[in-house]
Protein: Nuclear transport factor 2 family protein
Amino acid sequence: MRMSRPPLPPFTAETAAQKVRLAEDAWNSRDPERVSLAYTEDSVWRNRAEFISGRDDIVAFLTRKWARELDYRLIKEVWTWNDNRIAVRFAYEWHDDSGHWFRSYGNENWEFDEAGLMRRRVASINDLPIAESERKYHWPLGRRPDDHPGLSALGL
Structure:
């Protein structure tokens, strides 16, 4: 029996926002195995200049990512949606092992199968060095609290 990941397409404004928040929550867990389960087994990604195919590659990629991007905190926001696709903008903050802080901005295009699993993810991301005093994300590691402002409210 095939796994299903509601909400399912076709998306509405409400279900697209739910899907984006569920993705944000999973990525903020920094658990590569958990995150990978939201994708089809043969999911295809472009992340910056890296091309990834399948859950095993997703787990390997995310393991490398979070070993380098320390104290990672992410906020995602729906840009637009239609049928089985969602466009997302995001920003995340992290520091390297030398203590240098960054805010990474980007856009993602997502395509889902009928079971609500993401089969395609295309991400464009830019890194901005920031001073620690410029950080805007201060919640404890893990899920962003419901009362924490989103990207638009933060002016990002």
The chain has a mean pLDDT of 97. The radius of gyration is 15 Å.
